[in-house]
Structures are given as C-alpha cells and as structure tokens.
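User: Please fill in residues for this 53-position structure.
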C-alpha cells in the first residue's frame, strides 16, 4: 500500500467521521449522505483525495 493510498484513505475516513457526527446530530440519514458526498467532493477538488496514478 503506497503513501497516496494511505492518504486517500485517511481523508476519506475523516470525511465519513465528520459526516457521521453531523448525521447523528441531525438524526438523519439524508444529512449524513449529503454531508459525506459534499466533503468527499470538496476534498477531491482541493487535492486532498487524489484519484488515479
């Protein structure tokens, strides 16, 4: 497992953890899904999550 894969995994886990906290706080699966999608999209655009080689 390379460094890029480990960093992508860490960013993804962080995004899902924050989304889970927001989803539980709102008691809503929809809030979790929307937040998770938005955070993953933002991290990809910002360069934190780097798909491909």
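Assistant: Residues filled in for all 53 positions:
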């Amino acid at each position: 497992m390379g460094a890029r894969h480990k960093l992508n995994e860490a960013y993804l886990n962080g995004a899902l953890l924050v989304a889970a906290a927001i989803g539980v706080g709102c008691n809503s699966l929809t809030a979790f899904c929307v937040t998770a999608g938005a955070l993953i999209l933002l991290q990809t655009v910002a360069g934190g999550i780097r798909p491909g080689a």
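For context: The radius of gyration is 12 Å.
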